[in-house]
Automatic annotation (TrEMBL):
The lineage of its organism: Eukaryota, Metazoa, Chordata, Craniata, Vertebrata. Its EC number is 1.3.1.22, 1.3.1.94. This is Polyprenal reductase. Coiled coil: none annotated. One of its GO terms (cellular component) is endoplasmic reticulum membrane. Keywords: Endoplasmic reticulum, Lipid metabolism, Membrane, NADP, Oxidoreductase, Transmembrane, Transmembrane helix. It catalyses: a di-trans,poly-cis-dolichal + NADP(+) = a di-trans,poly-cis-polyprenal + NADPH + H(+); a 3-oxo-5alpha-steroid + NADP(+) = a 3-oxo-Delta(4)-steroid + NADPH + H(+); 17beta-hydroxy-5alpha-androstan-3-one + NADP(+) = testosterone + NADPH + H(+); androst-4-ene-3,17-dione + NADPH + H(+) = 5alpha-androstan-3,17-dione + NADP(+). It comes from Salvelinus namaycush (Lake trout).
Length: 319
């Protein structure tokens, strides 16, 4: 039925995730209009506990049993470690197929077949340069974030919910599969080698440029956040939260979340802008990061009375 509508399993998964986070964003924004006392209900607290993490959990009055499911936020690096390993493996398998004509392992073709056509892939298909470039850029992004978690970021005692942790572990695995699923694979019966360089187009360069700029924006924003807790020597002086200033923090509360969205948009451009599946991923990232930024913005405005009124949460001058 989904195939008849132009959707496959992977499309349905990303669309469902995007709609879930859009719904969570809307419910949270509307929760301010709830009657007095509703914010103390167990259902409301459970909902807020599932969408919040880190410092945004602080104002939430949670029961003791909910704290059993807390995982240290500093374990974020686990997500990127898995991504570096998994997506690195997929890059190697793709290059082996392109250069030496080795087919994907049967377990991988079965998974891709289920996610795209509902069955196994019958003909050998060779990834295009767009998919390989997206794989490489995604791997570079994951490696950078892994290094930043260890060398730049200064984590406090903030926590995430175990459901968020499990979701994060599976997220980059699904993302790597999505890159292959969204690729209009070249069907070849003859020679496996395909002239990748001849496929290079202007949008590959444009996407790579945007990716580089957005990655730099995210890195600089994370450095500014880390400097709020470190002294001139780089040693940690405090774990307290302070008002970030400088760079794009003058426009939005969470420029690193905005940069994350732009990174995924850049990958969509590199993919050729024709893949519905990847733009559903971008839609998910938009709603996911918008929710996280809104919660962070509310934390700043409630904690610091002198917080700049002109700053938006996520999108300059808009949201």
């Amino acid at each position: 039925m989904l195939t008849l509508l132009g959707f496959c399993v992977i499309d349905f998964l990303w669309l469902s995730l995007a709609l879930c986070f859009l719904l969570a964003f809307c419910v949270h924004r509307l929760s301010r209009y709830l009657p007095t006392g509703c914010e103390h209900s167990k259902l409301y607290i459970l909902f807020q506990d599932l969408i919040r993490y880190g410092k945004t959990k602080g104002p939430l009055k949670r029961d003791h049993w909910l704290r059993v499911f807390d995982i240290p936020k500093r374990w974020f690096w686990h997500f990127y470690a898995i991504s570096v390993g998994w997506n690195g493996l997929l890059i190697v398998l793709s290059l082996h197929m392109i250069i030496w004509g080795q087919k994907f392992p049967s377990w991988l073709t079965d998974i891709l077949g289920f996610l795209t056509t509902g069955g196994p892939v019958a003909v050998r298909q060779v990834p295009q340069v767009s998919a390989v470039l997206v794989q490489v850029l995604l791997w570079v992004h994951s490696l950078r974030r892994l290094l930043e978690c260890h060398l730049v970021s200064v984590f406090s005692d903030g926590v995430i919910h175990i459901v968020q942790y499990i979701f994060g572990l599976g997220y980059y695995i699904l993302l790597g599969l999505t890159v292959l699923c969204s690729d209009p694979l070249i069907i070849e019966e003859g020679s496996p080698a395909f002239p990748l360089l001849s496929q290079l187009r202007w949008y590959h360069v444009a996407g790579a440029v945007l990716f580089s700029w957005a990655s730099l924006l995210q890195h600089r924003s994370l450095v500014l956040l880390a400097r709020l807790r470190t002294g001139g020597s780089g040693t940690v002086e405090t774990l307290a939260h302070r008002v970030p200033n400088g760079g794009w923090f003058e426009l939005v509360s969470c420029p690193h979340y905005l940069a994350e969205l732009l990174i995924y948009v850049s990958l969509g451009i590199v993919s050729g802008s024709h893949a519905l599946t990847w733009w559903l991923v971008v839609l998910y990232v938009l709603f996911n990061q918008a929710l996280a930024a809104q919660l962070c913005h509310e934390f700043y405005t409630s904690k610091f009375q002198s917080y700049p009124q002109h700053r938006k949460a996520f999108l300059p001058y808009l949201l």
